[in-house]
From TrEMBL:
Catalyzes the reversible conversion of 3-phosphohydroxypyruvate to phosphoserine and of 3-hydroxy-2-oxo-4-phosphonooxybutanoate to phosphohydroxythreonine. Its cofactor is pyridoxal 5'-phosphate. The modification N6-(pyridoxal phosphate)lysine is found at K197. Residues 5-349 form the Aminotransferase class V domain. One of its GO terms (molecular function) is pyridoxal phosphate binding. L-glutamate binds at R43. It holds the Pfam family Aminotran_5. Keywords: Amino-acid biosynthesis, Aminotransferase, Cytoplasm, Pyridoxal phosphate, Pyridoxine biosynthesis, Serine biosynthesis, Transferase. It comes from Saccharobesus litoralis. NCBIfam families: PRK05355.1, serC_1. This is Phosphoserine aminotransferase. Its EC number is 2.6.1.52.
Length: 361
């Protein structure tokens, strides 16, 4: 692996170097078994022990109490878009949704197939800058099965800096921010996260659900997406995504070795501040998110002269700065700086941006 290459992809995202090195070393011979972890039965004593340890490490990182089940599920984050209403919303029910970008809008679209998905607020704008309406302006339902929101929108770069306070169970799509900052799990009815940003490879989803919400799935819910059935069978109703689970376990141990979520959050604050401060101080670049709601994980930015976009992307790639093209829905550039991105990567990016502005301004 080249230390001078920094991958800013929004997902699948870079994994910690130490994790990749360990996985490489163990690839052909895991725990002295003479074969890969991908080749052993998920019901073997070795794999079951690893899976339980991964869950326990996650519980310790997030201080998850026994009141919550931790599930390792299939189909990534999008798989939860339909699993949540099938598990939590009764026939003919309503679920409130906060829309702050493309991912929370996707959850609405899926939920509408199973009941009423009420949008209580949509993304707001102050001029060209994206933001979030204050909770006092939300049009909440009296009888919602839950309220769904996305604390961090990967595409738009909009992030909540608070946890909404509602009577209904709070459901949070933390795919792009889980383990990046301290949270109180007890504030939520359900937390879910696709793994491919801060946890591991794509295909795996983590679901943390309060146990009193289990056992409410409608009768037509596929067994593999029924939270109660997965909980009873330790997330092994069928063969789980075994290698992704193994890598997630390595990432959890890496996070503990970094000092846990609190220590990682400090690093994330420093990385985001470095990049945003540079953008704000350089007229050549612009961020279009209200400062109060800027994401620590996903930093979209625009060149003053967007005719230079292709040149910027070509030269940044040559400089070892990968995947900086913004999402097609919003254009511009985007630097995703998840937990695994070291501050050296952000320094290299800001230095390149400074040099590029000087040459092309």
């Amino acid at each position: 692996m080249d230390n001078s290459i920094f991958n800013f992809c929004a997902g699948p995202a870079m994994l910690p170097r130490e994790v990749m090195q360990q996985a490489q070393q163990e690839f052909l011979d895991w725990q002295g078994l003479g074969c890969s972890v991908m080749e052993v039965s998920h019901r073997s004593p070795e794999y079951i022990a690893m899976a339980k340890e991964a869950e326990q490490d996650l519980r310790e990182l997030l201080s998850i109490s026994d009141d919550y089940a931790v599930l390792f599920m299939h189909a990534g984050g999008r798989g939860q878009f339909f699993s949540i209403p099938m598990n939590l919303m009764p026939q003919g029910g309503v679920a409130d949704h906060v829309v702050t970008g493309s991912w929370s809008r996707g959850a609405v679209k899926e939920c509408q197939k199973y009941g009423q998905a009420k949008v209580v607020t949509d993304i707001t704008y102050q001029g060209n800058n994206r933001g979030i309406a204050p909770q006092s302006e939300w049009q909440l339902s009296d009888n919602a099965a839950y309220l769904h929101y996305c604390p961090n929108e990967t595409v738009e770069g909009v992030e909540f800096d608070y946890v909404p306070q509602v009577d209904a169970p709070l459901v949070a799509d933390m795919s792009s921010c889980i383990l990046s900052r301290q949270i109180n799990v007890n504030d939520f009815g359900l937390i879910y996260a696709g793994a491919q940003k801060n946890i591991g490879p794509s295909g795996l989803a983590i679901v943390i659900v309060r146990k009193d919400l289990l056992g409410k799935a409608r009768s037509d819910t596929p067994s593999i997406f029924d939270y109660q059935q997965q909980f009873k069978l330790d997330s092994m109703l069928n063969t789980p995504p075994t290698y992704a689970w193994y890598l997630a376990g390595l990432v959890f141990k890496w996070l503990k070795a970094q000092g846990g979520v609190a220590a990682v959050e400090e690093k994330n604050i420093a990385k985001a501040k470095l990049l945003y401060d540079f953008i704000d101080e350089c007229d050549f670049y612009e961020n279009r998110v209200v400062k109060h709601y800027r994401s620590r994980m996903n930093v979209p930015f625009y060149l003053a002269d967007e005719a230079l976009n292709d040149k910027f992307l070509q030269e940044s790639k040559q400089a070892g700065l990968l995947a900086l093209k913004g999402h097609r829905m919003v254009g511009g550039m985007r630097a995703s700086i998840y937990n695994a991105m070291p501050i050296e990567g952000v320094k290299a990016l800001t230095q390149f941006m400074a040099d590029f502005a000087k040459k092309n301004g």
